[in-house]
Amino acid sequence: MELTHLDAQGRASMVDVGDKAISRREAVAEVWVHMHPSTLQRILEGGFDKGDVFGVARIAGIQAAKRTAELIPLCHPLMLSKVQVELTAEPEQQRVHIEARCRLDGKTGVEMEALTAASVAALTLYDMCKAVDPAMTIEHLRVREKTGGKTGHWQHPECSP
């Protein structure tokens, strides 16, 4: 079975996954938000009037994963069984690492959901802190690892042990 986003007339269309086998599928995406050290310190001390920056970004990422099909054309609407978004301060690198993990038992992968969760969490962090640090950067969004489906396990080459 060939998977393509083009129909017989060459027009964009959603891939038909009807004949694919159901399997446990999981994807992990990650991204880094670089910022001024004082901004990161302020986040860690709870010094933003908008509330818990990491908590709000985590919820935003989870919500975004569940709405990926509404945001990305041709994505399948999926019934995710797990969405986890973790934000970790890395003060020595002046950044926050965001990891998003999505899982389901289904016929298509969840890479787009994990990427959407990570990117929206990063954008939310930026939005909450931009008044004090508009020079923040969001860098290196990528799928780090995926499992399930026909291809099995895949890991980003830069993340291999």
TrEMBL record:
Transmembrane segments: none annotated. Its EC number is 4.6.1.17. Substrate binds at residues 74-76, 112-113. Coiled coil: none annotated. SUPFAM superfamilies: Molybdenum cofactor biosynthesis protein C, MoaC (SSF55040). The active site is at 127. Residues 14-149 form the Molybdopterin cofactor biosynthesis C (MoaC) domain. CDD domains: MoaC_PE. It catalyses: (8S)-3',8-cyclo-7,8-dihydroguanosine 5'-triphosphate = cyclic pyranopterin phosphate + diphosphate. NCBIfam families: moaC (TIGR00581), PRK09364.1 (NF006870). Catalyzes the conversion of (8S)-3',8-cyclo-7,8-dihydroguanosine 5'-triphosphate to cyclic pyranopterin monophosphate (cPMP). HAMAP family: MoaC_B. This is Cyclic pyranopterin monophosphate synthase. The lineage of its organism: Bacteria, Pseudomonadati, Pseudomonadota, Gammaproteobacteria, Pseudomonadales. The gene is moaC.
